[in-house]
Amino acid sequence: MIYRSHRFPVSVKGVVIRNGAVLLLRNERDEWELPGGKLELGEDPAACVAREITEEVGWQVTPSVLLDAWQYHIAEGVDVLIVTYGCSTNDGADPVVSHEHQEVGLFAEAQAATLRMPDGYRSSIAAWFTAQRAAQP
Fold first, then answer.
1. 18-72 residue pLDDT tens
2. Alpha-carbon Rg for the chain in angstroms
């Protein structure tokens, strides 16, 4: 038997919560997603998510905690490994949507949970909100 490995891209996403709201982007499939993008060969995943978030919304972020990794089956023959990081920001500017997305928004935890998005994103968002609450004095 010949072993054939599966190959698919890695997308590193960030959960950024500012003032009790999570940053989300609406894509061409009319789904809400976390900001982030494709990991380049040789690139550090945390550096990738920081770079991608700056490119997509103009915010400077600091990735801190690896939250999750899961395979997202988008369509037949289209699969992506999603890696999510909890990120922090001191950026007070409004997020600016890039040409890659249709819309940008900041959503309260309960509101984000009702949006159309893959369950893996929902799980990462919930995990980062929980971690943020636990870190408060």
1. 999 999 999 998 999 999 999 999 999 999 999 999 999 999 999 999 999 999 8
2. 15
Residue 34: phi, psi to the nearest 5? -75, 150
First to last CA, the chain: 57
Listed in sequence order, the residues at least 6 apart from 86 whose beta carbon sits closer than 8 Å to its beta carbon are 14, 15, 63, 64, 65, 67, 127, 128, 131, 132
Instruction: Check: CB of residue 12 under 8 Å from CB of residue 45.
Output: yes
Over 27-68, what HEC string results?
A: CCCCCEECCEEECCCCCCHHHHHHHHHHHHHCCCCEEEEEEE
Cα 55 → chain centroid: 13
Neighbouring C-alpha atoms within 13 Å toward the C-beta of 118: 21
- In degrees and rounded to multiples of 5, residue 55 shows phi and psi of -65, -40
Count of all residues that appear for the chain in the document? 137
Question: Whole-model pTM?
Answer: 0.91
